[in-house]
Amino acid sequence: MLIQSIIIYKLVPFFSDDYLVDSDEGGKAIIKKLTRCGIDRNKIFKLSVSARKNIVLEDFVKREVYISSVNYCIQRRHGNAKQITLSDITDENRPMQLKKWCEEIDLKPPNRREIAYKILEHKQTQDLVLSNRRRSLESLFNKITKVLGTVTNSE
Predict the structure, then answer these.
(1) Bridge partner list, 45
(2) CB distance 58 to 137 below 8 Å
(3) φ, ψ for residue 127 (rounded to 5)?
(4) Which end of the chain has fewer CB atoms surrounding its CB within 10 Å, N or C?
(5) Could you tell me the end-to-end alpha-carbon distance of the chain, in angstroms, rounded to an integer?
(6) How far is 70 from 59, CA to CA, in rounded Å?
């Protein structure tokens, strides 16, 4: 439920003025824009893992699940195109690595949202979160629920 809540929190617009951003350069740019518009910095949540600076939501998902979801999206869009492998990407800023990989083989990268929804389909059969990133997600989840109030579990 934790990763699903975090993914949904990132994909679905908030009912209040709260924001979840990645800790990469894009996330930093979004934070600047939001604060310039008068958004309280305490209402902006940033994904992070210790001292790493380029962490995005996809980096919290098990690499096998991410790769499987990406390959499904590639096959759906491009048919029998080349498939990405575990050795093609690491656990830091996977979308950027995927983009570079796709450029190398002249392929349009799958949409991040499409990949995220495919990742959620794996929830029924396996744990989605990398074990070494679980604590960071739990900490972020606790910060979010403190600001937004209690999250009810409908399962």
Answers:
(1) 20
(2) no
(3) -70, 135
(4) C
(5) 9
(6) 13
Nearest to 62, CA basis, from 129, 138, 149:
129
Residue with tokens 């604590």: 135
Return the percent helix, strand and coil in the chain, to nearest 5.
60, 5, 35
* Residue-range domain boundaries for the chain: 2-148
What's the rounded Cα separation, in Å, for the pair 150 and 71? Answer: 36
Reading the block at residue 65, the tokens are 């699940």
* Angstrom distance (rounded) from CA 92 to CA 54: 6
With beta carbons less than 8 A apart as the criterion, state whether 31 and 4 touch. no
Residue 139 has pLDDT above 60, yes or no: yes
Quickly state the pLDDT bin for 114 (edges 50, 70, 90).
Answer: very high
